[in-house]
Amino acid sequence: MARMTSGRSNMANAGARAKARKASLIDATRMRQLLQQGTDSIGASIGDFGYRSEMDVYSTRMGGSDAIEAALSHNLDNDLDSVLDFCQGNLKGLVAIYVERYHYDKAKTVLRAVHKGASDELIADQILPEENPKNSLWLQIVRTTETVQEAADAMAGSPWGRCLAKLEGEPSLQEMEDALDRQYYANSLVAVRGKDANPQMLRYMRTEIDHRNIINQFRALRQNLSVETRVNLNIPGGRIGDAVLRAATQADSEEALLDALRRSNAFNDSGFEEALLESNESRSLDPVFNLLRNQRLAMLKRFSHLNPVSAFPVIYYIQAKVLEVQNLRLLVRGKAAGLSDEVIEAHLFV
User: Fold this and answer.
1) What is the DSSP string of 240-303?
2) Helix, strand or coil for residue 9?
3) Tens of pLDDT along 16-30?
4) Which of 124, 64, 67 has its CA nearest to residue 337?
5) CB–CB of 8/89 below 8 Å?
6) Residue 29 contacts by C-beta under 8 Å, 6 or more apart in sequence?
7) Which of 53, 123, 159, 331 is most buried when burial is the number of CB atoms within 10 A of its CB?
């Protein structure tokens, strides 16, 4: 678990190391070259791009796309730990709060697995492979609990466990996940207002909150959720004001929702209509999600250039690494499912 620290930061050194790591990531050209390869050779090529040691761990037990996906997740965990290790002082605290989101994600993974009644063997074999030491705590929770509430109670002592303990009655899985999201961003806002942070860091985190709220409102509208439920989905602390969010939660169509969001100067509607059109044609919110992610990446890139001696170069690298892993997963899954290269490429984030 990431912990907040204090002391002198090593921002210049950490930023240089993060930039060097980012330069070694798989670029768009090499990603498309991978796409052209056959299923059998993709694994070998991915190993050559820095994933060899983790792939060797799983090759003896798994095969094909399952082994590659497990290796990718394992590599990401190792990389996040490595990045935290070369950060010091207050910088480590700022980076840690960004990394903490992936612990919250694993907490939600455990809750979902228990809720679905997945067997301990299936979870240890595929969802949270036991070869990855970072999964040991989570697997212990899965193996010793039978209900979602028991799993939540077993997380006591952790930030996510303390968050879940505050819920009253018998909360649903969705209510637990929403509470975890709110708690993570509440902690993040406290961190980015602390020492060694800057106004851009706060702006970026508040923009993340806005984007999460936007996606939640469009998804809730398509699911015909009640206004009361939609209000509870909003995460506080974003740049979009409360009045605009209230109007957004009461919108009865996507056009009305978009009009409500446009009342806020914090909402960037560039390309939004096109993304919504594509989203309606594909019956998926992926185009909207990708548009917002593009906006955040552009912001991270700009801020990392404007603030080279800050946490931004490190966080920008982490996000780029996560996207690389997501792209590789998508590529491997698509190949395994027999999708055409054109379909896979259309969904890659490059």
Assistant:
1) S-HHHHHHHHT-SSHHHHHHHHTTSTT---TTHHHHHHHHHHHTSSHHHHHHHHHHHHHHHHHH
2) coil
3) 999 999 999 999 999
4) 64
5) yes
6) none
7) 331
Using one digit for the tens of pLDDT, what is the confidence trace for 213-264?
Answer: 999 999 999 999 999 999 999 999 999 999 999 999 999 999 999 999 999 9
Mean residue pLDDT of the chain comes to: 92
Rounded CA separation 147/162 (Å): 18
Residues 6+ positions from 297 with CB-CB distance below 8 Å: 319, 323
* Measured distance CA(144)–CA(98) in Å, rounded: 29
Tell me how crowded residue 292 is: count the other CB atoms within 10 A of its CB.
Answer: 22
Q: Is the dihedral of CA 20, 24, 25, 29 positive or negative?
A: positive
280-293 average pLDDT score: 92
Question: Containing H/E element for 144?
Answer: helix 136-144
pTM, two decimals, is 0.91
Report, as an integer, the average pLDDT of 299-306: 94
Residue with tokens 């992926």: 286
Contact call for residues 107 and 160 (beta carbons, < 8 A): yes
